[in-house]
Batch of 3 targets.
Target 1
Amino acid sequence: MREDPTMARNLVRFDPLAGLDALRRELFDDALLPVTRGRIPTTDVYMEGDKSLIVEAHLPNFDEKDVTVTVDRGALVIQAERREKEEDKEKKYVIRESSSSFYRSIVLPEQADESKIAADFVKGVLKVTVPLQESASPRNISIGTSSSSS
């Protein structure tokens, strides 16, 4: 029996996950989230050498007065909330009201010096510097021999 060469070219490999990938694209690639895509604030947490922990929260559309930074039970808490309201004074009804909020809690390392935490807000970026205290260096404990004589 002879194989038909055109038949081999017409075969398509079956991909069982193709339907899931299409569903993911439909749900998350602009289909349901066109308004929020690209506008969700990001937070970067990184070490600056061994001396400090840096937390940068990118908060576009927030003003410094909208942002609070607190330390609560060993965690750095960043909150931002903005409300807008426009009223038509002649007709006495609200024509537009909106609010935006952001919340992030970051557990601080044990060596964080909470009394020296500093924060700056420049061009929509909140930068919090958490200085780290030097941790006690490990010390060797000598192991003695115990001899019990009876």
Target 2
Amino acid sequence: MDQLNEIKELKNRIAVLEMEIKKTSVPIISSIVDDTILVPIVGYTGTERFELIRNQVLEYIGSHSNITAVIFDFTGSDLNGNNEHDYNTIAFDLKVLNDTLKLMDVRPISVGFNPNIVRRVIASGTHIEFESYINFRMALKVLLKENGDSTHD
């Protein structure tokens, strides 16, 4: 095989592996609450990542039409690594993510924001209406209570 073909095959292989890495970077986990999934957001979170998250979750919901709520856990995300200008984009990306799920009649719930992120996103001026809790445990408690399950108090 000549070098050009070998390079082309290697580039194709890299593209396939990059796609696999992207897909596995958005884990979707079943919850103890019926019809609810958890999506932990870990590492860098920019517009491209939000788009990937949105697409993966929509694809999952498309094949699991019983899903009524998605909990996004931002505890492990790196939103602090962004400069001031990027908080406008982050606020917009959060809004698009939530609005997309609402159009699918799925309840978006966010958990794990730290006070610095909250201040900066609110200061960005983007109007966001979404349900948020301090952590995953609190969100589960609310959902369990709404579903009439008091065994996990």
Target 3
Amino acid sequence: MNMPIFNISDDIDMTRGVPAEGRDSGSYRRSIWQDDIENGTIVAIWKAEPGIYSYPGRDLEETFIVAEGEALYSQTGSEPVKIGPGSIVHVAKGVASQLEILSTFRKLATVVPKP
């Protein structure tokens, strides 16, 4: 039996993710689990280098746990909050957010589409 055991710090099977503002790169992701290819729940690891990553409001909810690094996190209309290892962040459907990554950052995220 093959047990699906992963280590969040492994940089294997990483694909290019959203670039930091003003750059062509900066982040990488690795899918751990996906329920349904079209619109299912996704569990993934996201790694990013310092920079600003802005996200428009999306038709999904995301909850993530910071495993490494520090960032300033904000949602539309809110003051930035410093987050780091152990922080758990929930982003509701339709809420725009921004991460200003201060040091190499890694999170484990669960993304759930909301029709």
